[in-house]
Amino acid sequence: MPWLQVRLAITPDQAETYEDALLEVGAVSVTFMDAEDQPIFEPELGTTPLWSNTHLLALFEADAEPENVFAHLKLLTGAELPEHHAEVIADQDWERSWMDGFQPMRFGQRLWIVPSWHEAPEPDAVNLLLDPGLAFGTGTHPTTALCLEWLDGQALENNSVIDFGCGSGILAIAALLLGAPKALGTDIDPQALEASRDNANRNNIAPERFPVYLPQDMPSEQADVVVANILAGPLVALAPQITSLVKSGGRLALSGILSEQAQEVRAAYADAFALDPTAEKDGWVRISGVRR
Known about the structure:
Elements: E1 3-10, H1 15-24, E2 29-34, E3 54-61, H2 66-77, E4 84-89, H3 94-101, E5 105-107, E6 111-115, E7 126-130, H4 142-152, E8 160-164, H5 170-177, E9 182-186, H6 190-202, E10 212-213, E11 223-229, H7 232-237, H8 239-244, E12 246-258, H9 262-269, E13 273-275, E14 279-281, E15 284-291
Parallel strand pairs: 6-7, 8-9, 8-11, 9-10, 11-12
Antiparallel strand pairs: 1-3, 1-4, 2-3, 5-6, 12-15, 13-15, 14-15
Helix pairs in contact: 1-2, 4-5
Enzyme class: transferase
GO molecular function: methyltransferase activity
Keywords: Cytoplasm, Methyltransferase, Ribonucleoprotein, Ribosomal protein, S-adenosyl-L-methionine, Transferase
């Protein structure tokens, strides 16, 4: 079934007014979209910031008349409409379309991330089967890619691993498939822990090799290798805790950091670690080092 899509170019202070008005005139969904590729990183807790130039997209059933929709919006808001446009769009299998767009990816020399619905391109390589549906971490984001490439270059045999902020479990599972005997995952989101367990099971990782915990339930232990792909703010704030998880002589890799945030994060870890040169990919960085 086709749909009528209405697009309004709004500012943040108009968002609530036009969202309510669109729903009032029969929109079945309303979506906010960045009009200028303007990133928003680490918003304040409890806030939902919008871009300074935002497009409001609303879907109506195909028999809706654009002229009537716009006329009713003017009546409800009592103002001239901002820049607006309407078009009919074809329906499609959105899940199938998304799945088709997520392809196997190679990281470093040995490691492939393979969607669970795909065949492995190199069956004899280290293939991590992933269902990315529940939590962050698919390999497509530069921060995950930076961490996977780093793990691929490490000698992980006989090394314990902690994945701090494990999300989908992709980093811990990669470490296990690359030779680590055990990895521990922790995340503040119970759904992330569920995704990690599911992905571990998909890769035939026994539960005792990859236990996952909420932070308050995490056992007090150190690891030879710690990876934390979260955000710069928490990495700085939690530097003492993250540092305490790394054994003397152990290795640390941090990501989720924008290039302009690198110096602040490096400063938070410089006393405790001999840091490597910062690695960068598409405006994001990885900071790694060895515990003094």
